[in-house]
């Protein structure tokens, strides 16, 4: 009995889907391959034990372990005075109060950082690219930035309140 062959439209569809799946995985495979990334050295550095001593448990979890606070729990959500939001780990100025806005997300949000305050990096830990925001001085995790914010920047810097302190003007 001769082997049955797969009709060509079905075979073509299977090949197309296989190529589509392979091409979708390529950016992730490329990002995860090659040499490991070099650890960046920041101007403010301490041992893990010293960070734990200097920070509250919530601050340590967020800033040093990339944790996230529950939405709606930050005291900084209701902060509307003039002043500056600074890194809780090292006091580095991050955001002016004039750049803060109510995003409705449950986290303090800003449309523009202060010059020299933050850096960003893209990572794929959740299966798709996200842009992390961290303190330029200590490398502490602050939150994430998204492209759905208000003008003039169109950015939403969605920050963990426990990663910051407020200094009134």
Helix content: 10-25%
Give the SSE string: HHHEEEEEEEEE
Low-confidence stretches: 24-37
Mean pLDDT over the residues = 86
Q: C-alpha Rg, in Å?
A: 22 Å
CATH architecture type of the domain at 57-168: Beta Complex
Q: Give the CA-CA distance, first to last residue.
A: 88 Å
CATH topology label of the domain at 57-168: Metal Binding Protein, Guanine Nucleotide Exchange Factor, Chain A
Which features characterize this protein?
alpha+beta; 24% helix; 169 residues; 3-stranded antiparallel sheet; Metal Binding Protein, Guanine Nucleotide Exchange Factor, Chain A; 24% strand; 6-stranded antiparallel sheet
Written description of the protein model:
This protein has helices at residues 8-31, 48-54, 57-65; strands spanning 83-87, 93-96, 100-101, 109-110, 118-123, 130-135, 141-146, 156-159, 164-168. The chain has a domain at 57-168: Metal Binding Protein, Guanine Nucleotide Exchange Factor, Chain A, CATH 2.170.150. A hairpin with a 5-residue loop joins strand 1 and strand 2 (93-96). The protein is built from 3 helices and 9 strands, in the order H-H-H-E-E-E-E-E-E-E-E-E. It is an alpha+beta fold and 169 residues long.
Task: Summarize the topology.
Layout: H1 8-31, H2 48-54, H3 57-65, E1 83-87, E2 93-96, E3 100-101, E4 109-110, E5 118-123, E6 130-135, E7 141-146, E8 156-159, E9 164-168
Antiparallel strand pairs: 1-2, 1-9, 3-4, 4-8, 5-6, 6-7, 7-8
Summary, kept brief:
With 169 residues, the protein is of the alpha+beta class. It contains 3 helices and 9 strands. It has a domain at 57-168: Beta Complex (Metal Binding Protein, Guanine Nucleotide Exchange Factor, Chain A).
